[in-house]
Every structure is written in C-alpha cells, then in structure tokens.
Design a protein that fits this description.
alpha+beta
Length: 264
C-alpha cells in the first residue's frame, strides 16, 4: 500500500475548510511545519481512518472532534494497492451520520461500504492492530514511550517497541534484530573488539594504511609548496637581472669599482 493523499475536514483545529496533503510521491516525503500547526492531527486522522470504524466511539476518534463547535470528522485517503488507485472516505459519528466507503479513483466504482470497509482495510494492511501501523512502516505514535509500562512489562525493549510500533506485527522487526545481532557477532568480539582478520579488522587496517598514505602525501605537498615559493623568488630575481635598466646600473657600478681599484 502506498499513501498518495490525505484530506480532512472538521478535525480538531481544521474546520469546514479542512486541510489536505496531496501529491505524496514514492521515496521519502517530509511534512514540516512549526509546532501547533496540526502535523500530529494529520497523523492521528490517518490512523483513525485506517483502524477505526466510522461508528466508533473510541477516545482516539472522539478526540478528533473540533472544539468548540463540534462536527463530524471527515477523512479521505488516496492510496495505491496492487497496481490500482483507491479512495477511502470516512465520516465519523453515531447512527446515520457514520459513513465509510472505498472506491476506485478511476471511474469511482464502489469497492466496499459500511463495516465491509474495515474488512477491506484489514486485507490491504495485513493487520487490524491499532498500534502496529501499516506493514513495512515504522508507525510512530507520539508520546507512547512515556506511558507507564504494563505489569510485568518493564523492559527497555518493550518501551521502545511501544514508541515506534511493530513492523508487520513484530515478526519482521525481530527478524531484522536477529540479523543485525548475527552480523555484529561476525564482525566483533563480545567485548566489541574487531575479530582478527575479519571484515571489520581488515577495514580498520586498510584505513590505517590509507591514513599513513594521506599523511605522507600531505608532507610531500607541503615540501612542494615550499619549493614552488623558492622558485617563484628565483624567477622574480632573474626577471630583475634581465631588465636592461638594472643591467646598465650594475655595469656602471662595476666600472666605477674598477676605476676605484686602479686608482688605489
């Protein structure tokens, strides 16, 4: 699944005019704005649209209602999945006010409505866990690591997992961690020192050789610069000797010296 656009109305600080983030492309997309401009609201709205039914009364949904004035939060998401473009639209509220629909962006054909929308999302996302986030995404829920740990769950790892969420229900995260540990054990000893003749040890030795070569070249460059400066001085002196006026002056001085010598 690839997120392409997020639009919302009547969500917290955003009233009837709403807000939109369009043109989300492949690769890294950066959403930047000063504090209190609604960045967290956009992320919370995205999470609510993906993981809660339109009729939900969960506190994370009711927290989206604008105050003052109230209103039914509406969230629209454009996404790509399986080579197709879809549009998810949710209006949160009780009774007939609650609406949910998934349609194809091209042609507007309805894919799912009502509670069936959540079944479609579960299939697309691969999970319905609200703290997991979409597969392959580090889903950051602001401030979760500051919550007290659950009973019997007081490890640093559990706190970090709660802050960044899980990747594909945690399985991929554990796989990545195990591979990272195995790679570390291949490169260094238990005390963190490079393993003899290992890749890390060879790389450090190579770096040492390159540092020595750089130092030698820098010394040669400094010596060359001194030689260049001396040659510049000699060249300037030769230029003076080749000057006709200077040559005549020196000849006059030499003749005067010779006359003085004869007179003596």
């Amino acid at each position: 699944m690839k997120l392409r656009a997020l639009r919302l109305r009547h969500v917290r600080r955003f009233g009837a005019d709403g807000a939109a983030v369009d043109g989300i492309a492949d690769g890294v997309n950066v959403l930047a704005a000063p504090n209190e401009f609604g960045k967290s609201t956009l992320v919370d709205a995205l999470r609510a649209a993906l993981f809660f039914k339109a009729s939900s009364k969960h506190r994370d949904v009711t927290a989206l209602v604008p105050d003052p004035g109230g209103g039914a939060p509406e969230i629209e998401i454009d996404l790509d999945h399986g080579g197709q473009g879809f549009r998810l639209h949710k209006r949160f509220g009780g009774g007939a006010a609650a609406r949910a629909r998934v349609s194809e962006r091209a042609g507007d054909r309805t894919v799912a409505t009502g509670d069936a929308v959540q079944d479609w999302l579960r299939e697309v996302l691969g999970t319905d866990r609200r703290d997991a986030g979409p597969p392959g995404l580090l889903w950051v829920t602001q401030g979760r690591s500051l919550e007290p740990p659950a009973a019997g769950d007081d490890t640093l790892e559990s706190l970090l997992e709660r802050e960044v969420g899980d990747v594909v229900a945690g399985e991929r995260a554990r796989t990545v961690l195990e591979r990272a540990r195995a790679e570390r054990e291949r490169l260094v000893t238990a005390t963190g020192k490079p393993k003899a003749r290992g890749d890390y040890d060879v790389a450090l030795a190579r770096r040492h050789d390159l540092d020595a070569a750089v130092a030698e070249l820098e010394a040669k460059a400094a010596a060359s610069e001194r030689t260049r400066a001396r040659l510049a001085e000699i060249d300037a002196r030769l230029g003076e000797l080749d000057d006709p006026a200077e040559a005549a002056r020196l000849a006059d001085a030499l003749a005067a010296a010779e006359r003085g010598l004869e007179a003596a």
